[in-house]
Amino acid sequence: xxxxxxxxxxxxxxxxxxxxxxxxxxxxxxxxxxxxxxxxxxxxxxxxxxxxxxxxxxxxxxxxxxxxxxxxxxxxxxxxxxxxxxxxxxxxxxxxxxxxxxxxxxxxxxxxxxxxxxxxxxxxxxxxxxxxxxxxxxxxxxxxxxxxxxxxxxxxxxxxxxxxxxxxxxxxxxxxxxxxxxxxxxxxxxxxxxxxxxxxxxxxxxxxxxxxxxxxxxxxxxxxxxxxxxxxxxxxxxxxxxxxxxxxxxxxxxxxxxxxxxxxxxxxxxxxxxxxxxxxxxxxxxxxxxxxxxxxxxxxxxxxxxxxxxxxxxxxxxxxxxxxxxxxxxxxxxxxxxxxxxxxxxxxxxxxxxxxxxxxxxxxx
Length: 365
Ligand code: 0PR
Fold this sequence. Notes:
CATH architecture of the largest domain: 3-Layer(aba) Sandwich
CATH superfamily of the largest domain: Type I PLP-dependent aspartate aminotransferase-like (Major domain)
Radius of gyration: 21 Å
Distance between the termini: 39 Å
Low-confidence stretches: none
Bound molecules: ligand 0PR
Strand order of the largest sheet: 1-7-6-5-4-2-3
Number of strands: 13
CATH topology of the largest domain: Aspartate Aminotransferase, domain 2
Strand content: 5-15%
Shape: globular
Helix content: 25-40%
């Protein structure tokens, strides 16, 4: 008989190589447990978690450059964002906000084909057209192709800052110039990349004029508990467009897509960012980047084709039979649409675990 759910243990992260989930920071874990029953969706009742959400938005505003862009010190930026259930909700809401604000008969979203599948969900639930355009040979948005896809129905341009399959960062300044010229808002999906990018030298967040909304997930590289996503907007009007009246609550309106939300996610996001922003995240960016570079070299040394990592995510050629065999040995590995194996160098992925993986590869080849 199975032990009860309360006695069961989650599986270890030792062999998890392709997931964007990771061990929460210890302080995030403690904070999550305390706020398991608090609902940030009812801020007039649960005032403590409401205050923590303001702090979480302030922290994300710093990470994404919004605090500087709106001249805030992190305390007055609440109107510019909220904590979502993850990248999917943030992306849906960014599309919804754009749809509400555009004057077009058949609103369309223009996105590179590297955009996460959550944009397909957004298009489907919101009944907007999703125009995906090809990426260049390196897997980044092709600015000319995006330009060609714009017309009077264009409601939103999407850029990816850390793509799910290859960790690629789109040319955001060029896309932002294009967006400003065309009068179309630009949304940056940094769900995974957002906690690496402040240290990578890329231009990606609100420091780039024309970037209107950003997705950034504390529950990925941010090391909060699941679920904790983030949606931020340069202009509070982007969030106002999302509000519905909440007549019987003591607050007048709600911008979130979900009603009851995770207090654990919010509290743990504050605890994680308090503990790690900026030095801890910088150290993790450097550790993970060095490890990704080392791993890519090791793979190349074994004659395997490797996609040069831009952020700490390594995609590489692996024969199908070997892929199946390493999965048989317990390695949790997934593949890109084109068939490469991908390793996301998350905080729980170590030199030891990658060495053990390589030893298994050697044994199987
Ligand atoms: N945007 C980007 C760039 C993403 O990579 C993801 C998730 C999302 C949006 C959606 O975020 P949520 O899943 O928080 O809604 N990318 C991961 C992926 O598709 C999600 C994931 C995470 C999958 C952990 C598996 C896993 O074990 O790979």
